[in-house]
Amino acid sequence: MARKTDIEGRAIEAAMALAEEQGWEKTSYAEIAAKAGLKIAELYPVFASKTAILVAFSRRIDEKVLAGTDPEDAEEPVRDRLLDVLMRRFEALRPQREAIAAIVKDLPRDPVTAACLAQQATRSMRWMLRAAGLDDHGLKGMLRVRALAGLYALSLRVWLNDDSPDLSKTAASLDKNLSRLEGWTGGIGR
């Protein structure tokens, strides 16, 4: 039997490839297992659903972004740190953009997956705040997480259509939305 980390990686890769090829709605759990070269009995103990595979994919992206966090960046302004963290996230997602576009397109017809992914996005944004050196506890922390999640969702739409090599459209959208957020709240870092 394959190791758990091997199964995770193979399942995530297969799920994203199938989403890109045929859309998320048409992709079945059994197809993911088959494309990953796994029996359903091998996949089930690791991922009980297709949605669980997407959540694991998001967590892997979180880990990549967090691994790129440099403690020396703590001296940078809050807005710059947030911009850097979120752009690193979009860069990490870039190889899977077509699959993500297909998943986003199908989410309105799958409210359970949409709700689970919204919860995971909130968790991810909590970690992105931490990576930027911002507190995420208490009422202020909750508001920061929610604000960042909304800002990220707006920028995700831009990112899906950003064909520039340096993701300049996405960076401009993030910068503009961070400015708006500062205008409304006096700054996400305060």
UniProtKB/TrEMBL annotation:
Domain HTH tetR-type: 5-65
InterPro entries: Homeodomain-like_sf, HTH-type_TetR-like_transc_reg, HTH_TetR
Residue ranges the UniProt entry marks as DNA-binding: 28-47
Family annotation (PROSITE patterns): HTH_TETR_2 (PS50977)
Keywords of this entry: DNA-binding, Transcription, Transcription regulation
Record-level Gene Ontology MF annotations: DNA-binding transcription factor activity; transcription cis-regulatory region binding
Protein name as catalogued: Regulatory protein TetR
